[in-house]
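INPUT
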Amino acid sequence: MRIQVNARNRGYEFEALPGERVLYAGLRAGIDLPYECATGTCGTCKAKLLSGRVKDRWADAPGRKFVKPQAAEFLMCQCAAEDALTLEVSKFVYPVEPGVCVPQTCGGTLRNLRPLTHDVLGFALELERPRDFDAGQFVLLAPEGMAGYRAYSMCNYERGGRHLEFVVKRKADGAFSQWLFGANREGASLDTFGPLGKATFDPGLGKNLLCIAGGSGIAGMMSILARATASGYFERHNGRLFFGVRAMRDAFFLRELTEFGRHNVEITLALSDEEIPEKARQDWPGLRFERGLVHEVAKRRMAGNYQNVRAYVAGPPPAVDAAIRVLLLDARLTTDNIRYDKFS
Amino acid sequence: MAKRLVCRVADVPENGLKECEAEGGLKLVVANAGGEFFGFQASCPHQDVPLCEGLFDGSTLTCHMHLWQWDVRTGAPLGLAEAPLQRYPIAREGDALYLGGESGALDVGELFNGLNSSTLEKLVSLARRERHPAGAVLYRPGDPAEDFFVLDSGRIEFLVGRGEHAAPAGFMLKKGEVFGWAALLEGYAARIASARCLEEASLLRINGKAALRVLESDPASGFVVMRRLAALIARYLATSGAK
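OUTPUT
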């Protein structure tokens, strides 16, 4: 199916497979169409249909609140072409940069499912074939036969590898987490589409790193710190990570974070709902502990330390918004030095 | 038309934002920049997010959703923003704020917004407002490039190549955006694309040579315009990530 996209700077043409969502077809063709969550929530990928028909594969997507159906708007991440389409995207759109990993579909097998806390699981995916991704990116996952993808950030970093690491928090209304927590899924087959996401880190950056993560938002930070420490980045630049959870029972990856700490990264655990247990300090001497919401803890520690900083933020939307407020208004970082993922 | 009350001065906190509905039903966001008041369209041109939920430090307005930013004095886009804000001049009388008229397409536009007001007036006096029905062709390849256009409403399609080989350039313009800017350049006497109205369009037509004479008489403004024109052209030439 031929799809013509008119963006604000130029037009593009690409082919979509039957049933393939317009966004994925465009990204696969190396066209950097606008998106953020790529899973029907954020509304960033909305487009206007000029000709042709689309089939909406998720009519109840939360991101639908951003589109005006009477103006022929639709979400590219949820709609597939029924015939040849002409669309309008009211943003500047460029081809993906050379060297950026172009997303593709790829099958995988679920491995090493293990509890990390009372409501967080870790798991790995063995891909059918080696794939590249950048530190900080995510992929879309769907169990075979389940409609709709969910987005998960990789926790590891490996070039040309077949092994991806993830964490998932149990959510009462999350179909994927229900599926994952519901039975022993070791060895199950999943479809993936990716890698996606622009909150990426490359050692060529040359800036001090500030990472602020709430809950399972720590995933992408693990990938970034893995990439950075492996390249000796913190011999030349400062690194600080602030990891916010409610209480010690919600904290995970503390052994891995302690290891990063040995590579000159300052790791702070922010507990919002309990005083710091003395045992935590004894068990984890390589980590700092502070009481408070993660953006407040980061703000106190970072005051006066924002020179040449690139910030990465991930977590629940309210935590991300609060952190961005600090980074813009207190730290006065420019927007290109604030990279973030909002999970909803 | 009667003065249209926006709100009370005390409603807008110092270096803060307030969404208001002016008499007559216009929704806008009012920014208080150290006692000076600026009015803008109430929602972000990107995804219609209310700008009153945004961040404001007294000079830069940021939409919290995707961090688009604008200069509060002009509505001009900064950083990641890809479109200007529609500006509504605000007049203060005593403890009340009133609408001071609507800014035109030129003042909203990316080339001319925030210029010295006498220069802007001269440019406005050069502009002819035109309405074109859907399907009207504004110019074709090879036509003389004498005038440039500022879009006020409607949609314009651009085709490159001739006859059967014509292909959509895919440009899509927003209110205040400029096209046909070859008329402002030396040595580009003829159009290289065709421009056609996809729906009824309202636009301002300005003679390029006359506009250049106005800008030469106010070199400070002229320099600003040429810098913006260079940035605009670079954006269309640029490939990925070079914006």
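end of record. Chain A has three domains: 2-88, 104-196, 203-342.
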